[in-house]
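Reading a protein record of the kind used here takes only a little practice. The integers have meaning only within a learned vocabulary of local backbone shapes. With that in mind, consider the following protein and its fold in token form:
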Amino acid sequence: MIYTLTLNPSVDYIMELDTVKLGELNRIGNTSKFPGGKGINVSRVLNRMGVSSKALGFVGGFTGNYIVDQLQKENIETSFVEVEEDTRINVKVKADSETELNANGPVISEEKFAELKQKISKLTSDDLLVLAGSIPSTLPKTTYEELVKICHDINISFVVDAEGELLNKVLPYNPFLIKPNHHELGELFDTTITTVEEVIPYGKKLLEQGAQNVIVSLAGDGAVLINEHETIISTVPKGEVKSSVGAGDSMVAGFLAKYHETQDIREAFRYSVASGSATAFSIGLCTKEIVDSLLPQVVIK
């Protein structure tokens, strides 16, 4: 089973309008809402690709109930730890520019964190855990490190999609996959990266630090996969970018879905790139049909 972990999920509320006039009444065009959070996005995309997963994390209040209900309607299993305060609501304003208003999450007590760790300790070596997104401010900065150490000690494969020190700290525990974008990779090594060629030496440093597979996305300029056996550079499909939200999560899900099916790293990488593009070209997350239609444009070398 693939398990996804979202420590700070949200209800994402999207408002679409032509332009925002600050200090005035604005009439909203279309609105939509859905369960948000990077791990939840991975579960939702996996489900659309016919791969089962179980969503873990913390939820609370009426907004937490909404997330659980919506995921269950999509036939996604859940095993959240319930907390007292409400799960946050994040507002995405899509006008002539894209603005995000992200709230703080609920307080997570030591007891609730221990309950989550207990759930993870019951996974087996046949499982895989995806840790994605930020850590709530009320949890220790060592949260990811503590969780992946559990995975490492009982031989559970894990994937991490996080930034900065969160990513740095998990590398010694040998993650199966990490997926920084080129900005995040540059920040890790205090440099600026603009081309796929510039990615390669720094990606190899992440391998030396413990990662098994590294995918680095460069938006419209391509993507790179690096492991101990090969370095693969990919083109990306052409299309109109409608929203960047969830594109990285879709890359993770696409990779895992195709690798689950074929055990072929190259094909998993191609599917990962097509999945990220399919979400970028959509309002909301990608569908399998759109991913499959874009796949022929993904050329690797």
User: Anything to note?
Assistant: The mean pLDDT is 94. The first helix runs from residue 38 to 48. The first strand starts at residue 2 and ends at 6.
